[in-house]
Write a structure and sequence with these properties.
The chain has three helices and seven strands. With 159 residues, the chain is of the alpha/beta class. Strand 3 and strand 4 form a beta hairpin. Helix 1 packs antiparallel against helix 2. The longest helix has 30 residues.
């Protein structure tokens, strides 16, 4: 079973619309281009045919990704404004020598936002989950270094 992903209603609707477009507009259009290219004859050296098949492959892969994501989506209400870090929170923290402001969630949850996103399952996300402003935590980065994090604030994302 796929891991649950927190999404705003806006992000969920955006992804659902993208899926609908890929299935009901792009898929038939690509199939038509493939059919037209087939009718031209020799497929070995038919650039239009190969380009359309490549587009079809990309389209079907994206459809599968979106279906999996939407099936695992947890369309969340705004988390409570209790200052405790959890998915759906905008976190301000100091680490790696500077202050960072980011959404704890999935990249899909940040559709249209101009903000960095960290997964709750990434080392940083796991380290700060359940903590609050004023807490100091550390985690082992993928490069083997210990990173110290000072949590400055955690507020609910309000779309």
């Amino acid at each position: 079973m796929a891991e649950k992903k927190w999404l705003t209603q806006e992000a969920y609707d955006h992804l659902l619309a993208e899926l609908d477009n890929l299935k009901n507009v792009e898929r038939p259009a690509i199939a038509k281009r493939i059919d037209e290219a087939r009718q031209e004859g020799d497929l070995k050296e038919n650039g239009g045919y190969h380009a359309a098949r490549e587009q079809q492959s990309w389209n079907e892969t994206r459809i599968a990704q979106l279906e999996e994501l939407l099936e695992a989506a947890e369309v969340g209400e705004t988390p409570p404004d209790d200052g405790i870090v959890e998915p759906g929170m905008i976190v301000e923290a100091q680490f790696a020598g500077s202050t960072h402001r980011f959404l704890l969630g999935s990249r899909q949850a940040a559709v249209g936002l101009d903000i960095e996103v960290f997964s709750p399952n990434a080392p940083l996300g796991k380290a700060i989950m359940g903590h609050k402003a004023g807490d100091k935590v550390s985690y082992l980065a993928p490069n083997g270094k210990t990173i110290n994090v000072d949590i400055i604030s955690a507020t609910p994302y309000k779309g």
